[in-house]
Amino acid sequence: xxxxxxxxxxxxxxxxxxxxWLDRGMAREGITVIEPDGQTAAALSDSxxxxxxxxxxxxxxxxxxxxxxxAVKPQNLDEVAPAYRRFAGESTVFLSIAAGxxxxxxxxxxxxxxxxxxxxxxxxxxxxxxxxxxxxxxxVGDDQRRLCQDLxxxxxxxxxxxxxxxxxxxxxxxxxxxAYVFLLAExxxxxxxxxxxxxxxxxxxARTTVAGAGELLRQSxxxxxxxxxxxxxxxxxxxxxxxxxxxxxxxxxxxxRAIAAATRRSRELAG
Length: 271
Hints:
Blueprint: E1 5-8, H1 12-23, E2 31-34, H2 38-48, E3 51-53, E4 67-70, H3 74-80, E5 93-96, H4 103-110, E6 116-120, E7 130-136, H5 142-153, E8 156-160, H6 167-175, H7 177-194, H8 199-219, H9 224-231, H10 237-245, H11 251-270
Parallel strand pairs: 1-2, 1-4, 2-3, 4-5, 5-6, 7-8
Antiparallel strand pairs: 6-7
Helix pairs in contact: 6-11, 7-8
């Protein structure tokens, strides 16, 4: 883990990452959070015991961070990033979780000499079950890559791609993916009510079933298709439902169109 880290942005994702780093044993003394929102800043300071500043202007003039984690909203990055340009150089790596902001766009704000890792996390990071896919520019060294890997794994799994354009599809599958799962739970609950279940019970059944199936999928070495087959008895109730869901106009073509739409939109936003 880094000995000196600046976290620019202490919102939900930044706060989740901070909690994960501290749980992994990172020293509080090495972390400085930059968070302009007073209420959020106070909550971070109280709950985690780290230094929190309102703006990067408050940083010591001689500070040389190992890493600057940019966890601001994408629309704010161009305004926020130039304040950290003074750290651009081989000794500091910039780790950005600003969705949709390309490495070229980040580099424009930070300078051509900045080592940059762009990554796409997802919201289950808030409970330590996220997955993040990262892409580095050529200036990122092996030690810096390992450092970023450690930081990202504090909130779940991490993977790397060499082709930055793949992050659009990553965004569509895992970045937006939790919303698809939540929608599934919504749809199951609504269908249960229409089948005659009380609303509270149906919602509980859907929520717990989706959560439990997800945990089973996480822990099992079996492929999703095998787990599905294990639940499906020939001629049974599950088979009857899957005949609908796996029809030519069922879940797969619908999900394929949804992923394609999200991928296109990610490219539009990045462009």
